[in-house]
From TrEMBL, chains A, B:
Listed EC numbers: 4.1.3.38
Family: Belongs to the class-IV pyridoxal-phosphate-dependent aminotransferase family.
Xref: SUPFAM superfamilies: D-aminoacid aminotransferase-like PLP-dependent enzymes
Protein name in UniProt: 4-amino-4-deoxychorismate lyase
Transmembrane segments: none
GO MF annotation: an example: 4-amino-4-deoxychorismate lyase activity
Cellular component terms per the entry's GO annotation: cytosol
Record NCBIfam families: PRK07849.1-1, PRK07849.1-2
GO biological process: carboxylic acid biosynthetic process
């Protein structure tokens, strides 16, 4: 199901985008992926806030929030698939040499079966060097570190490298071994009753699902920390999780081929916390 | 003018690409831009070689060379614009969750007036940190350094940063001040009768125009070197040039606000060398 910013529905299987759209030719645009459950989008406002933030980082026009909200409603009102929807919002710089009118749409898709399986079973991840160091994001904003741009080829290449290594996910690290994020997820480490995630100032995306979980956890008396995590810390943690809108809270049971402590029960607790927000 | 890999022409102003094409959603594809003069594409084979190399770096299927050659001919046979064409070849991973059929096309466009002006007048450039160090490209191939992918948002952001600084182009550098490349060009430094360009092992694109110029220069008795260049070296050179298919050989007259030695005559010599190849 596909809706455009002008308030119309379109056929997702029909061509919609021109070949000279800069979103295609240059990966020059931004996106968000929102989880919808039983017709209700989760964290819609934080997602729209982040879309606007990414757009600002890339000197794009400000996305028309009301038009995106209308497109979201249109997709959901006409959705005929399963209980859950992965709802993608896309906003590009428009066609090359055009009048600057951005291209934008909301696209509803089914949740991939693989992701559903990983929510229940957890997954194996590998660490991969992202080639960035602390300080770079602030020093060199043109590197767009922490912007959710359409230029995700590296994120996809990292996932293929994980598969070559017999895993299905990636934990990006700095060259000096500090934990960053997954290619499409945020990392959360748990020790006792403390949740920790790395700071977005390292050049990573501020997570909407991580924020929702931290909100719920704080309310229930857990401690939450946003601070650097060394890769070695992950092996001694009570649990390591990759979280995102579509994957929710997914357990990492194996890292770089080594089993992590069993976090099955902890996972259930975190899922309950997260679901209590909705 | 637009031609598809199935050997048909299409309307470039009409939608052609689905919203769930991974080239759009993930910048997950590769491209080349070829200069065509008087109906003849320049360096077509090196461009097709590099398209295949970029595709291999991204685990894409091998582009169908004959189909791309046919699309190139179709565009040029039907071109009704100026003497020169910027001919873009695009090859993406196809639609998300599809059968793996890539999307591919050849798109002919006019050369931007700005580029034509810069060929004659030269340009001002600024150095910007690309945030990579020597060795990273080989150590972390998933970072796709040196692949000509559709994920060019950073390259475009760097050009906007240059404009904010009153310049129109960028010389990317490592954090330690070694010269890399432009966002869409190769850097060549000239001292006496020696042309120097940085090695692609630094994680930069091997240049087709640079290779053509080096070929011609070697034939005419110039020395050519592929070796690291320190930013400071650029100020003492006889000439600094950004070269690419569409811009040909373009003189950098100002770097980070400082005037470089006048290289007008040297520029003419290099242009003659380059044009002697065709």
């Amino acid at each position: 199901m596909l809706a455009l910013l002008d308030g119309t529905l379109a056929d997702p299987d029909a061509p919609l985008v021109r070949v000279d759209d800069l979103g295609l030719l240059r990966g020059d645009g931004v996106f968000e992926t929102i989880l919808v459950v039983d017709g209700k989008p989760r964290e819609l406002d934080p997602h729209l806030d982040r879309l606007a933030r990414s757009a600002a980082m890339m000197d794009l026009p400000e996305p028309d929030r009301a038009a995106f909200e209308r497109a979201v409603s249109l997709v959901l009102d006409n959705w005929t698939g399963g209980r859950e929807v992965a709802l993608k919002l896309v906003f590009t710089r428009g066609v090359e040499g055009g009048d600057g009118t951005p291209t934008g749409f909301a696209l509803g898709m089914d949740i991939p079966a693989k992701v559903i399986g990983q929510r229940a079973d957890g997954l194996a991840a590998v660490t991969l060097d992202r080639g960035i160091e602390p300080g770079l994001a602030e020093r060199a904003p043109w590197l767009l570190l922490g912007a959710k741009s359409l230029s995700y080829a590296v994120n996809m290449a990292a996932l293929r490298e994980a598969e070559r290594r017999g895993a299905s996910e990636v934990v990006f690290t700095t060259s000096s071994g500090s934990v960053l994020e997954g290619p499409t997820s945020t990392l959360i480490m748990v020790r006792g009753r403390t949740l920790t995630t790395p700071p977005s100032t390292l050049g990573i995306l501020p997570g909407t699902t991580q924020a929702a979980l931290f909100r719920a956890a704080t309310r229930e008396g857990w401690a939450v920390r946003v601070e650097p995590i060394a890769v070695d810390d992950l092996y001694e943690a009570d649990g390591v999780f990759l979280v995102s809108s579509v994957r929710k809270i997914t357990r990492v049971h194996t890292l770089d081929g080594k089993s992590l402590p069993d976090s099955t029960e902890l996972h259930e607790e975190l899922v309950d916390l997260y679901e209590s927000e909705y």
